[in-house]
Amino acid sequence: MTQLIRTQPSKEVQLEADELIVTKTDSTGHITYANRVFMQLAEYPENELLGKPHNLIRHPDMPRGVYRLMWKTLQAGREFFGVVKNYTASGNYYWVLANVTPDYDSKNQLQGYFSVRRPPGRRAVEAVIPVYARMCQLESSHNKAAAPDASMEWLLAELEKQGHSYESFVLSLLDTNLTSGKTA
Question: How do residues 80-91 score in pLDDT, each as one tens digit?
Answer without folding.
Answer: 999 999 999 999
